Amino acid sequence: MSSEPSPAVKAARKAQARLALCLAEGRHFRLEAGAGAGKTYSLVEALKTIITEKGAALMHAGQQVACITYTEVARKEIANDIEEHPAILVNTIHGFAWAFISKFQKTLRELVANHVSRREAVEAAGGMHEQNVEYSYGFFGIDEKRITLHHDDVPRFFAEMLANEKFQRIFKSSYPILFIDEYQDTDPHVMNAFTEHFFKPAKGPVVGLFGDHWQTIYRRDYLLVDYPNVEGIDKGSNFRSVKPIVDVLNLLRPELKQEVDDEETTGEARFFHCNAFTGQREDSTHAKQELPREALAQSTERVKDQLKEDGWDFDPQRTKILMLTHSAIAAERGYPNLAKIFDSNEAFAKKEDATIAFLADMVEPVCVAYAAGNYGTMFNQIGGIPTIRKSADKAAWRADMDALLALRESGTIGQVIDYLKSTKRPRLRDRVAERESEIARLGDEATEDEPNSLKRHRKLRSVQYSELVELVDFVNGFTPFATQHSVKGAQFENVLVILSGGWNQYNWPRFLDYNTTGNIPAKDEAGYYRARNLLYVAVSRPQRRLAVLATQALSRNALATATRLFGQTNVIALPMEV
């Protein structure tokens, strides 16, 4: 005799039944699945049902269900779960969009010619002829024989094509059902096109959206978008965390109440604060009432010692520390000179600077993949497998990459960039190449009237590249907002979240204060939702134990928020030495 299903299983089955009904009746839907709800499981189960019920008919008609994912990792996971069934096409948005638009070369040439930012380049190349439009390395270029698209051109041109009824009909005839994973992070051009041409008129393929707008960290639209003619389905399950942690999540987000899978498993959720500190606090623009550096480090170690006494194991395989810390910690993390160059941490730690973003998101993954022997991953990162006709071509690639790895260890950022200018493996992104060209034009010494971005780029060139490696390791391994979503979607047995000052887009005392008062000035709304979403992502990672440490001084209202979320006995004033 089978046991009674858990509350989480019951909630999941209810959501899945509503999803299946939408598919059966041909209605658009959105599955809003909070952290730990099993969003990917719901998506895969829906695909498996379609395969069972319609797989043969789809293949006979030459059609597929399209499933657009946010990352290559997610694409592989879903494709493996459905055993690469030919009735299902799983791809990233760029891969999927390019596969669709690449067949219409004449239209693509027209779109390029009409694009405002491309007109000058088109004219300089002698205009449009019968060039072949390609997309491989993600950089725009045009000559007499070919046009290469920029990374951002692909979703934009895909969206523009969907404005044409002919392409809408072709799209629907090829893909009668479309699933979008992590819809909240999907390119806005694409989502706007789906809204205008599929949702509003209630036509086109049946579209299923899967995601969670509370886990939007990188975009500016933090509120739940009201897509017309799209049925909302909340999946109120949590298969990850124990009840004390889920209770915090439900109090933080009461509109999406989650049910736990195992009500008996023990765990904890605690909140530590540093209001007992009576010494002089920092009061900089982005670190209001923050602990001084020595006390900041001391508070972290004191919490860790307390948690160890209570049974926490800080082995990295079991416990994750998610840090939003003051830039002074950069010295301890190994990138002090990088931190000194920028006015705000976001510019380098969140990779808002174009040069940092290129090195962190392109060069580093390429180097790491090459060093590990993952050549397929390396070429995918660059944008496709290059033409290698003979053994000499392969040897040249190896020589170039070996030299790059050597520079990575001992050279400066400038030396690495100079080397990449000669090898183009990988090729510099447009904005980085433009900065290099401008410096070459102006000379080695900075001028008074040149842009700050150029002045920073000059300083960056002299920094040891090893600091960039340390920065990437910190961002990808210790913070919940890495570009590759290295923490978002992940789970750990125990998590310590450190909320500190020094980040101009995340004001934790203000967020906690507003969460109690509900009085959020219009100028602070975006910051409030950014902080809310980032906190939600961070505190929803643990399975068994959660601890939060707030190092800035907290107001009475801010402490009231902590007490409401964690319970009075779980809000602890950390003993502090002056």
Query: What is the count of helical runs?
Result: 24
Total separate domains? 4
- Which strand order do you get reading across the main beta sheet? 3-2-7-8-1-9
Give the DSSP E fraction (strand runs of 2 or more residues).
5-15%
Radius of gyration, whole Å: 26 Å
Shape: globular
- End-to-end Cα distance: 62 Å
In short:
By secondary structure, the chain is α/β, with parallel strands linked by helices.
Task: Please provide a written account of the structure.
The chain has 578 residues and is of the alpha/beta class. It folds into four domains: 7-91 and 159-239, 3-Layer(aba) Sandwich (Rossmann fold), CATH 3.40.50.300; 101-153, no CATH class; 244-342 and 481-573, Rossmann fold, CATH 3.40.50; 351-473, no CATH class. 48% of the residues lie in helices and 15% in strands. It is built from 24 helices and 18 strands. The strands form five sheets. It has a six-stranded parallel beta sheet, sandwiched between helices. A five-stranded parallel beta sheet has the order 15-16-17-12-18. Strands 4-6-5 form a three-stranded mixed beta sheet, with helices on one face. Helix 9 (188-199) links the parallel strand 7 and strand 8. Helix 19 packs across helix 20 (452-461). The chain is globular, with a radius of gyration of 26 Å. The N and C termini lie far apart (62 Å). Mean pLDDT is 88; it is low at 478-486.
